[in-house]
Amino acid sequence: MGEVEHFHHVSFLVSNSLQAAFWYCCNFGFARFAEKQTDKFVEIAVKNGKAIFVFKSALRPNVAEIKEDIICHGDFIKDVAFMVDDIECVVERISKLGARILSSIEKIFDEKGSVLSAKVESCCGRLVHTLIQNIDYTGIFIPGYKPTDNFKFANSLLPVRLNFIDHVVESHPPGTLDDVAEWYKETLRLKRFWSVDDLYSDKSLLPVKGWLLNDSKRTTQLMIAEPIIKKGVRGQHEEFQEYHGGAGIQHIALNVTNIVDAIDTMKRQGADFLSIPDTYYDQLEERLGKTKLKVEENLKEIRRLKILMDFDEKGYLLQIFTKPVQDRPTLFIEIIQRRNFDGFGAGNFKALFAAIEEEQKRRKTFFLENEPKI
Ligand SMILES: O=C(O)C(=O)Cc1ccc(O)cc1
Ligand SMILES: [Fe+2]
């Protein structure tokens, strides 16, 4: 007991929740469905399938609880919320470990029933984790949120179907993964499922260390990553941490059943993804030609839409990554489809890392000598 069941939602702290929510609805097919307002904050919840994002902003100046956060990080993911089976057990373990309990267990309720909820600090910068255990809640989201209609304009767009949050990736400073993995094991019972000490070891690209942590049923996938520092250049995690202001969520992957349809629609409606060279698809088709794997999708469409593909003898995954989704080069979104393949696209790391480094060079954040002199 005392285990995580699945991601419940992800909550962003932003300067204007209305605009952020609208932007996510237009780009990724979310629909606004719930809202909560207090004297200090407004929160807007958007949903697509089981994936729920919440955007929170302050309604007045100098709100103490978030002042530091907003000054330091800009718009960012503040809270990765988990559904747990026994909140008392989890909170007790967390307090024993010495982590701060930001809100102790509380029963929250409205006319649709109740849940137990608590909030704890994480070991990932200023990220927090809300923990939720259901009692008998039948409402739309969490007690206290009122239903809202979707944005009229977003309703008129072509639909995009997402399923759920496939995985979340945290970016940590170099040399800290052991402690981070230990923290998630001791608190949330997330265990290391696999680890790669060098996610991509080609000498021409910058290495990243990444470990995948899972709950026992493997429905919650949390990846923790850190850079392996190289002189003279700023890798993707150094760039993230420098612009974000420390450790934080680097990307969120959203699971889909039909990635070709989803990406075709998202691209038509303006979502901006990393570009992949044609040579990647020449090599992919050659490698696929040597296997007996049956691919349902049209490879011409995969090439046209610049979707990445990795496979083994049993199945395959298709994935694509957006450019950063705010002014700073920090958080990005991944769309992923799995067909009998629950690993990570190790065969895609080269293409992904090359595309990210290309973007870094374009933004002039890759080489350290280009650092702006303040
Ligand atoms: O391939 C994926 O979807 C991953 O999530 C792996 C990953 C982990 C860390 C990175 O900096 C980049 C990619
Ligand atoms: Fe990912």
Overview of this protein structure:
It is a single chain. The chain has helices at residues 17-28, 64-73, 87-96, 152-155, 177-188, 236-244, 259-268, 278-289, 299-305, 349-363, and strands at 4-13, 31-37, 41-48, 51-58, 76-84, 101-110, 113-121, 128-134, 146-147, 164-171, 191-196, 208-214, 221-227, 248-255, 308-311, 316-321, 332-339. The protein is an alpha+beta fold and 374 residues long. Strand 12 (208-214) and strand 13 (221-227) form a beta hairpin. The longest helix has 15 residues, at 349-363. The relative contact order is 0.13. 3-(4-hydroxy-phenyl)pyruvic acid (ENO) binds next to strand 12 and strand 13. Its cofactor is Fe cation. It comes from Acrobeloides nanus. One of its GO terms (cellular component) is endoplasmic reticulum membrane.
Give the secondary structure arrangement, pairings included.
Layout: E1 4-13, H1 17-28, E2 31-37, E3 41-48, E4 51-58, H2 64-73, E5 76-84, H3 87-96, E6 101-110, E7 113-121, E8 128-134, E9 146-147, H4 152-155, E10 164-171, H5 177-188, E11 191-196, E12 208-214, E13 221-227, H6 236-244, E14 248-255, H7 259-268, H8 278-289, H9 299-305, E15 308-311, E16 316-321, E17 332-339, H10 349-363
Parallel strand pairs: 1-4, 5-8, 10-13, 14-17
Antiparallel strand pairs: 1-5, 2-3, 2-9, 3-4, 6-7, 7-8, 10-14, 11-12, 12-13, 15-16, 16-17
Bound molecules: 3-(4-hydroxy-phenyl)pyruvic acid (ENO) and fe (ii) ion (FE2).
Fe (ii) ion (FE2) is lined by residues 167, 169, 251, 253, 334.
InterPro entries: 4OHPhenylPyrv_dOase, 4OHPhenylPyrv_dOase_C, 4OHPhenylPyrv_dOase_N, Glyas_Bleomycin-R_OHBP_Dase, Glyas_Fos-R_dOase_dom, VOC_core
Protein name: 4-hydroxyphenylpyruvate dioxygenase
Function: Catalyzes the conversion of 4-hydroxyphenylpyruvic acid to homogentisic acid, one of the steps in tyrosine catabolism.
